[in-house]
Amino acid sequence: MLPVRTLPFLLLGAAALPAQIKLGIVGTDTSHVIAFTKVFNDPKNPDNVPGIRIVAAYKGGSPDLESSHTRVEKYAAELAQNWGVEIVPDIATLVSKVDGILLESVDGRKHLPQFREIAKAGKPVFIDKPLASTLEDAREIARLAAQHKVPWFSTSSLRYADFMMNNRSEQNNGVITWGPGPTDPTHKLELSWYGIHPVEMLFSLMGRGCEEASMISTKDMDEATCRWAGGRIGTVRTLRPYGDYGAVVFRSGGKEVMQTTPKFRVNYSPMLKQLAEFMKTRQPPVSNEETMEIFAFMDAAQRSKAAGGKPMKLR
Predict the structure, then answer these.
(1) Domains in the chain, start-ordered, CATH in brackets?
(2) Per DSSP, what are the bridge partners of residue 228?
(3) Which end of the chain offers a freer environment for a tag, N or C, measured as fewer CB atoms within 10 Å?
(4) Could you tell me if residue 216 is left (phi over 0), alpha (psi between -120 and 50 degrees) or otherwise beta?
(5) What is the distance between the alpha carbons of residues 234 and 222, in angstroms, rounded to a whole number?
């Protein structure tokens, strides 16, 4: 039997889908744009996802963010020269040429103003991490998406590591995750910058239901803990300047399952298969509600840090 969530789309008939789904990129200042294009545009790639092609890109870029302005032109040139991607002058031109959009700007502050322009077209959007730089911006993105009936989702590729896929359960008694945690002064919600990866890992393994968060910090790390409904506890530790990824899952009967690097290798293919399916069905593989809870958690953790570690309810 087909999943119920796919039925509305299938009732439209096969003609509802073009033979090849054309995607456009907003923001050429992250290595993801090259990695994703290699998977979608190269039929000889062993991870190639057929029926999807990236055809256009808008550069974007942030002059006040080093990791943006030092890369935006380089990756735009590589997209055009190596992969035949058309570089367009603005977002309005981009959305007119494609069936779906990859909002890739490395600067989370740019996502809300860029999404405002994208949303007018009503086409499905993948928003790369971080969804936004503040909880307020994240909520406005969700509001605009609802207003314009835009399907959307955001995720870290770490959700799709084998360990994560095999150990997701709302019955896990508790989880500890860790990973790299550099911050950037442009992003006041500190965990949203790079800590979003182990945070996404935490919620992937625990599910929704986080109610109260606290965070303490040193020069070398942050540790944020949340109490889930029913008494479960999840903790994420971010390590500076960089650290390995890992996770421990606690189960009933005192059992635990641990996974550490190098098993947590970066592999975009599982995520991109989910992204391709989303562009076809418009059904997000990560619920918008979970993504918004993640931002409420990071917001509560940031308020806790400012208050010396005092626990804070999620807003």
Answers:
(1) 4-154 (3.40.50.720), 158-267+296-313 (3.30.360.10)
(2) 210
(3) N
(4) beta
(5) 14
